[in-house]
Design brief:
alpha/beta, Aspartate Aminotransferase, domain 2, 14 strands, 11% strand, binds ligand DCS
């Protein structure tokens, strides 16, 4: 079969940039876990962590059918009350809150449902089953759409009325004006990252400064668009601080190699480290960009995910304006509906706010964006709601605020519980969880473990992550896919599993870790 296939599309004839591109968030561990999941569906009870089923099968063989019916009933009741017991595959690997049980915000979904099915607005029952402010908002939103329909393409930049309301939200957040002309609505932050890379990268001689560790979308996008990744290391010993001296060092290094560094990427709050920048540090970064003539690419998708006492979110736009920097400094800020307390990853919504670009460059961005026609409309609506949620006094405000605070407080407790648990493990150190949805602990592996990993042709942290998932069902991602100081090993663990699962995760992780460390003790 293989020899009969055409050479028109062969692995050696496709775009080498595609071959070179890596994206660790959906990598080796992900594929391995998908296979485990299928195995569990085919053969329940076949894996060591599949507790309920293994217990059931054991009882079946020893005590017969009638007893099992009774036990199934007991287990069913027990699981209902205490879902720790049902412990199958637990995805601590990606930031996908609703896949792990997080509920969407009611007000957002009410508005979305009404916009998508406007005949509901004419039914009298709607006045009793939907909140009055969601009805008002749906009318407002629909009236700004071409043909008052969510099934129509919008303006390529996004529906003007929705961008206006996002601009109001940004201005309220920052205390500085924002313009809907600067806002481009996108299908999540991801396409917006690609747009800017497309715009800036002309050849391999163009470089982008990115943090290490970083969210691997950046390196993937730089590779796909043919540029050069210039990493700068965050200082783990100092709470993952972003040091200006390190930026300078890496910039100079790149310049001596003939690389034209075009932009600096800053992720705040950071994925994967969980660090939140101080205002002072942000000001230094702004000065650095101005002095070195760099575009600042500010990934601010976790702006609502800050839980450390005393830490707050300051957008770079606010920092720039508070320093008196105006339209002369190019800045791109990304936001997304996938994160925060909303977690609407599958709805694909977000925006980029582009300031400090000349009119002619902005026209080129508009052209590139318009090749995609427009961002999907549900994502556009949700983005406007995230940036302009119910206000005190609105009919939905109380329930909206209680859903929002419930999610955020629970995330903070989960982060603290996991941070403490990780720091209790032998040879593991985890910096304070300040924000985002992740922890990035360092794990000190023995020579014996490193040798065993090499023998399996794996990076040592990937070897650890694989052993963890196969014995506990807990999925974390190896640090090697995010960038780390050579010779150090980490893994990224999300804080997203539901709170009642955290004690079971902690005890399974501790038991696995102890046995792994004992097995590979030098
Ligand atoms: N920027 C950062 C820092 C992210 O963490 C993500 C997603 C994105 C941008 C893009 O997200 P959207 O396109 O959905 O807006 N984070 C991935 C991750 O690390 N796990 O899940 C998704």
């Amino acid at each position: 079969m293989g020899s009969e296939m055409t050479d028109a599309v062969a692995i050696h004839s496709i775009n080498p940039k595609v071959l070179k591109c890596e994206y660790a968030v959906r990598g080796e561990i992900d594929t391995y876990t998908e296979n485990l999941e299928q195995e569990l569906q085919k053969n329940p009870g076949s894996l060591p962590f599949d507790e309920v089923y293994s217990f059931t099968i054991y009882i079946f063989f020893y005590f017969g059918f009638f007893l099992i019916v009774y036990l199934h009933f007991q287990i069913f009741l027990f699981v209902g009350e205490n879902s720790n017991c049902l412990f199958q595959i637990i995805y601590c690997s990606i930031g996908n809150p609703q896949a792990l049980g997080q509920q969407p915000i009611t007000f957002f979904r009410e508005v979305l449902a009404l916009c998508d099915h406007p005949s509901l607005l004419e039914k009298s029952e709607t006045n009793t089953s939907f909140s009055s402010d969601s009805i008002v908002r749906a009318h407002q939103i629909l009236s700004s759409f071409p043909g008052k329909a969510t099934g129509a393409y919008s303006n390529s930049q996004g529906v003007k009325g929705l961008r206006d309301s996002i601009a109001v939200g940004i201005a309220a957040r920052d205390g500085f004006p924002a313009s809907s002309d600067d806002i481009f609505l996108t299908d999540g932050a991801t396409p917006a990252v690609h747009y800017i890379m497309q715009l800036l990268l002309r050849s391999e001689a163009d470089g982008i400064l990115c943090p290490a560790p970083q969210y691997p979308l950046y390196t993937a996008s730089i590779t796909l668009h043919g540029g050069t990744h210039v990493p700068y290391y965050l200082d783990e010993a100092n709470g993952w601080a972003l040091e200006i001296s390190e930026l300078k060092k890496q910039l100079e290094n790149a310049r001596t190699k003939g690389i034209i560094v075009r932009a600096l990427v800053v992720i705040n709050p950071n994925n994967p480290t969980g660090q939140v920048l101080t205002e002072e540090n942000q000001k230094q970064i702004a000065e650095f960009c101005k002095k070195e003539d760099l575009v600042l690419i500010a990934d601010e998708v976790y702006q609502d995910n800050i839980f450390a006492e005393g830490k707050i979110f300051n957008s770079f736009k606010k920092i720039f304006r508070s320093m008196g920097y105006g339209e002369d400094i190019p800045l791109v800020s990304y936001h997304s509906i996938s994160k925060g307390y909303y977690g609407e990853c599958g709805k694909r919504g977000g925006y980029m706010e582009v300031t400090g670009f000349s009119k002619s460059v902005r026209e080129q961005i508009h052209k590139v964006v318009s090749v995609n026609l427009c961002a999907n409309i549900s994502g556009q609506i949700l983005t406007s709601l995230v940036m302009n949620p119910p206000k005190p006094g609105d009919a939905s405000y109380e329930s909206y605020a209680s859903e929002r605070d419930g999610i955020l407080k629970s995330l903070a407790r989960r982060a603290k519980a996991l941070e403490d648990a990780l720091n209790n493990l032998e040879g593991v150190t985890c910096n304070k969880a300040e924000g985002s949805m992740f922890l990035f602990p360092q794990i000190h592996l023995s020579e014996k473990a490193i040798k065993a990993a090499k023998a399996s042709k794996m990076a040592p942290d990937a070897f650890y992550a694989l052993r963890l998932v196969e014995s506990t069902g807990i999925v974390v991602l190896p640090g090697s896919g995010f960038g780390q100081v050579p010779g150090t090993y980490h893994f990224r663990c999300s804080i997203l599993p539901q709170e009642n699962k955290i004690p079971a995760i902690v005890s399974r992780l501790a038991a696995f870790h102890e046995s792994f460390m004992n097995q590979y003790r030098d």
